[in-house]
Specification:
Transmembrane segments: 20-49, 55-80
Number of domains: 2
Structural class: mainly alpha
Protein name: Transmembrane protein
Radius of gyration: 46 Å
Organism: Collimonas fungivorans (strain Ter331)
Distance between the termini: 138 Å
Largest sheet: none
Number of helices: 4
Keywords: Membrane, Transmembrane, Transmembrane helix
Number of strands: 0
């Protein structure tokens, strides 16, 4: 009877050990699957954030080197549309002043003809 008890006990013990081992795998397998999904999610998040980090770095460099960029843009603008000489700018300013005085003379021509005549005289001078 002892031998039969010991064999049953051993078989039961063996069965319980296998159950324990199976229960560990029962917990380990879903954890492994969850960790695999988490790593896939992290990889997807990193792939999505990579362009944003690149744009952030580009924006930082643009702000940091703003004086350089502004100088390059001004130089390109000077190539396309050069600055007028001092004489040209003075002549344009005088012409605008003459136009303004003529406009004022035309506005006052009906109500104050003497003032309009004086304004036209001023506009005609160099």
């Amino acid at each position: 009877m002892d031998s039969s008890l010991s064999s049953e006990y051993t078989a039961m013990q063996h069965h319980q050990e296998r159950v324990v081992v199976m229960s560990v795998f029962a917990f380990a397998l879903p954890a492994e699957i969850a960790l695999f999904d988490a790593s896939a999610l992290l990889a997807a998040a990193a792939a999505a954030l990579r362009p944003l980090l690149g744009l952030g770095a580009l924006a930082t460099l643009m702000v940091y080197f703003k004086p350089l960029w502004m100088g390059i843009l001004r130089a390109a603008l000077m190539l396309i549309k050069p600055r007028k000489s001092l004489e040209q700018r003075i002549a344009r300013s005088k012409f605008r002043g003459q136009q303004l005085i003529r406009r004022m003379a035309n506005d006052h021509a009906s109500s104050q003809p003497n003032l309009a005549a004086e304004l036209r005289l001023l506009a005609g001078r160099d």
